[in-house]
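Shape matters. Shown next:

___
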Amino acid sequence: MEQQINQLLQTFLWLVITSLAGFLTHKVWPMLTNKLKSQHNAKIIQAEDMALNFAKNIVAPLAVDATLGNATKRKMAVQKLVAKLYSVGIELPEASVLAIVERAYQLYKANGGDIHKLDTTGQSNSNQQVVRVTTDDSNNQGQNSNVQGAPANPYEHQGSEK
């Protein structure tokens, strides 16, 4: 009788261990691996954001340097960015660094930098249109004719008609 009880307990224990192992491998293990992957991806995104901020500060001075060619500027920007990232302990693939430098330059151009290259032809600008952008608001007094007002509310007077 005692041997049957031990055998029954042993069978029950193996059933519990097998069920627990199945649960861990099918539910817990994938959840842990996904969590680790998402943390790794978050670290990469954070490193790329930091690299983009560094690249913005590196690209602007190089973009206005008329003594360098575009290829030289790009090469110097990549070298400076890799050195800066190395100094803070970040390693990114070369393709990522190149893309980040290019993105920083495109953002620089989109924000108004490097719109016109220097005119080295020596020709007169008399036939070209000159656009001047000012930041003072003395003539406009806060009124911008390009800004639309708030949209009309079709239900505005509905409550007062009753």
Summary: DSSP finds three helices and no strands in the chain. Helices lie at 2-63, 70-87, 94-110. The CA atoms of residues 37 and 62 lie 37 Å apart. Confidence is low (pLDDT under 50) at residues 144-148.
